[in-house]
Design brief:
- This protein has 19 helices and eleven strands.
- The longest helix is centred in the last third of the chain and has 17 residues.
- By secondary structure, the chain is α/β, with parallel strands linked by helices.
- A hairpin with a 3-residue loop joins strand 10 and strand 11.
- It is globular.
- A six-stranded mixed sheet has the order 1-6-5-2-3-4, with helices on both faces. A five-stranded mixed sheet has the order 7-11-10-8-9.
C-alpha cells in the first residue's frame, strides 16, 4: 500500500504541501525526512507520540528519518500553541535533557547504521550555536517578511498576550534547520504537529530562495480526546511520560485501558501498528465488548513504548486488580519501615507519599466522596492511624477512586 494513503487511513495527516508530487516521491523512494523535538523536559510525553509513529511508519516503508533534538531552539522557545513564553533553562540543563530524549527514541525507530534507512539523531545545537548573528541576519533574515510572519497563526495568537523578540526569531531558526538538513543530509520533507505549519512552510520557502530547491512538508493532527482534552503534558491528571521513572509501565498501560470507549479504535490507528483492517473488526464492538479493544490498545501501546515484557507485567497486574486473577507483583509499590505503622502512620500520609493523591486536601476530598480504600475497605477518616491488624503479609493495597492502585510494603 502507498505509505501516504496508509497514513491517511490512520488519520495521521492533517495538512500537506503539493500532495500529488510528495506521494509520487514517497512511492519512488527512498526519501530523507526530518522531525524535530525541542528538549524542554527530560522526557517525551504523549503529545510527541504521533510524529514519532509517523516517522516509524515511513521508516518501515523504506524512508530515512532524521530526528532533530532541539538543543539550541529549546533555548529560544517556540511560541506555537502557547499562551505564554516558555521558561528559559540553562544550556547544561537542555543538553542533559537532549541526551534523555535520544534514549527514548530507540523504542520507536531503528537507529542502526548497517541499513541504508537507519534513523539519524542530530542536535541542532551543533550548527545553530556556531552562527554569527550579523551574518545570519544578512544571509537568512533578509528572506523573511515581517508582515508575512505576523500572519502566522502561532504569532497572531500571541500578539494579544505578548510575544518577545526572542520567540519571534524561532521561525527563522527552524527554517534554517530545514535548509541545513536539505544541504547536508538531502532532507526534502519536514513533518510536524499542526501548530508547526507556518514554520514548515517558511522553511520550504527558504530552501527555494537559497537553493532553488523543492522541499515538502506535512503536519499531523493535534490529537484531542472525544471530550476535547489535548494529548499533551498539560492534560488533566498530569502528563503521561515515556520515561518509566516518571510514568511507570503499569500507569502507562492504565492510561490506555481507561480511555473513553469512543476513543479506543481511533487511538489504535494513531498509537499502534495494528493493521487498519484488524482495527475495523474492533470498531464493530459495542457495549461491554469494547473492553477488548481497550485491552488490545493498552497492550500494544505499552509494548511499543516499554517493550513486550513490561507490557505483559502491566497487563498481569491489571488483571489481578480488576478481573480477580493474575499476580499483584507488578502493581506500583514502595517499601516503608515497619516502625511507621508502630508510630501511627495515617491514610493521609500513605496516599500522599505513594503519589496516589497529589495533596492531603485531595485525600480528604476523596474520602468525603467515598473514593478512598485500603485493602478493599472504604476509609472515611483518613487522619486515623493504620492498625497492624489491617496488614496482609506486611502490606497494604491502596486504592484512590475506581482505578488507581498502589501497594505499600512495611519492612521490619
Amino acid at each position: 500500500m502507498e505509505v501516504l494513503r496508509s497514513l491517511n487511513d490512520r488519520s495521521l495527516v492533517y495538512q500537506m504541501t503539493n500532495e500529488e508530487k510528495l506521494n509520487e516521491l514517497l512511492i519512488k523512494g527512498p526519501l530523507s525526512f526530518y522531525i524535530g523535538f525541542d528538549a524542554t523536559a527530560s522526557s517525551l510525553h504523549l503529545g510527541h507520540l504521533v510524529p514519532l509513529m509517523i516517522a516509524s511508519h515511513l521508516q518501515q516503508a523504506g524512508h530515512k528519518p532524521h530526528i532533530i533534538i532541539g538543543g539550541a531552539t529549546a533555548l529560544v522557545g517556540d511560541p506555537s500553541g502557547r499562551s505564554t513564553e516558555r521558561s528559559l533553562e540553562s544550556r547544561d540543563t537542555v543538553s542533559n535533557w537532549a541526551v534523555s530524549l535520544k534514549q527514548q527514541m530507540t523504542r520507536f525507530l531503528d537507529f542502526s547504521q548497517t541499513v541504508k534507512n537507519g534513523a539519524v539523531l542530530l542536535d541542532n545545537a551543533a550548527w545553530l550555536h556556531q552562527l554569527n548573528y550579523i551574518d545570519f541576519l544578512r544571509d537568512i533574515g533578509k528572506h523573511f517578511s515581517v508582515n508575512r510572519m505576523l500572519t502566522a497563526e502561532s504569532v497572531k495568537m500571541r500578539l494579544e498576550t505578548g510575544l518577545s523578540f526572542l520567540e519571534f526569531n524561532y521561525m527563522l531558526l527552524q527554517s534554517y534547520d530545514f535548509l541545513h538538513l536539505y544541504r547536508e543530509n538531502n532532507c526534502t520533507l519536514q513533518i510536524g504537529g499542526a501548530d508547526q505549519w507556518g514554520n514548515i512552510v517558511a522553511g520550504i520557502d527558504l530552501i527555494r530562495r537559497k537553493e532553488a530547491g523543492e522541499a515538502y512538508g506535512f503536519t499531523c493532527p493535534l490529537v484531542t480526546t472525544s471530550t476535547g482534552e489535548k494529548m499533551s503534558k498539560s492534560q488533566p491528571g498530569g502528563a503521561v511520560w515515556l520515561d518509566p521513572n516518571l510514568t511507570s509501565p503499569y500507569d502507562y498501560y492504565q492510561f490506555w485501558i481507561n480511555v473513553d470507549d469512543r476513543d479506543a479504535t481511533y487511538f489504535m490507528k494513531l498509537y499502534t501498528f495494528i493493521p487498519v483492517n484488524e482495527i475495523a473488526v474492533f470498531e464493530k464492538l459495542s457495549g461491554a465488548d469494547i473492553r477488548q479493544a481497550k485491552e488490545k490498545l493498552a497492550f500494544e501501546a505499552t509494548s511499543i513504548a516499554h517493550g513486550k515484557h513490561e507490557a505483559e507485567k502491566a497487563r498481569n497486574a491489571s488483571l489481578s486488580l480488576f478481573a480477580g486473577f493474575g499476580s499483584q507483583e507488578n502493581v506500583p509499590s514502595a517499601e516503608f519501615p515497619y516502625s511507621r505503622v508502630q508510630k501511627g502512620v495515617s491514610a493521609l500520609d500513605l496516599f500522599t507519599e505513594s503519589g496516589l493523591c497529589p495533596s492531603r486536601g485531595e485525600v480528604r476530598r476523596l474520602a468525603k466522596q467515598g473514593g478512598l480504600y485500603i485493602q478493599g475497605n472504604r476509609i472515611d477518616a483518613p487522619e486515623d492511624s493504620i492498625s497492624e491488624e489491617m496488614l496482609e503479609e506486611g502490606s497494604l493495597l491502596l486504592r484512590a477512586g475506581k482505578k488507581r492502585y498502589f501497594k505499600v510494603f512495611f519492612k521490619k
